[in-house]
Amino acid sequence: MAAAAPPPPPAPAPSPPTGVPESAPIGHPIFYRIRLATPADVPHIHKLIHQMAVFERLTHLFSATESSLSTTLFNSPPFHSFTIFLLEVSRHPLLPLPPSPHFTPIERVITRELPLIDPEEDQFRSMGNGDVVVAGFVLFFPNYSTFLGKPGFYVEDLFVRECYRRKGFGRILLTAVAKQAVKMDYGRVEWAVLDWNVNAIEFNELMGAKVLSEWRICRLTEENWNEPSSWW
Question: What are the start and end residues of every segment in region (Disordered) (predicted)?
Fold first, then answer.
């Protein structure tokens, strides 16, 4: 009788997986949040406005102080007067904020191939929030269109710090204002752009905004108010 065949050799142990699990994040996530600014944010807001004045080559017109901002910005409920959305970012998931009766923060995450280096993160660290930093802001307030018979929003300032530019955050801030306008059944959102800022003009056109070349901004400033007799 033939001898029994020897048992098959044991199967080799499976090699440990070398790929990235499908559920694991790929790249470098940036967690971001749009929230309403509060009086406690004034030091960051003041620094952002100064950086914006430098970028726009208008530092000779910059005279705002933390005191003047604190005194004038937060005297009315949000959206009924001057309102600021702050953009906060972090490399880690954001801790929840206390609920607000006026606005629910918008929180999302984007992923980049390379890490984002913020050389000013210590100067813009959000108080009590670990590694959360303030990256930009948008300031807006109501105006009115008699043609539409509806209020709207006018965006006075939209600014993102340099290391966070060209990453979609400007669009995110402006979209937050537009969504709030829709929520309140407002008729439109308007803003101005410097004629030399080609990148900003292209950005606005990509957002679907129409650049109105037939209109010019007229401005009466405080130094002229001291001579009312010149008005007539």
Answer: 1-22
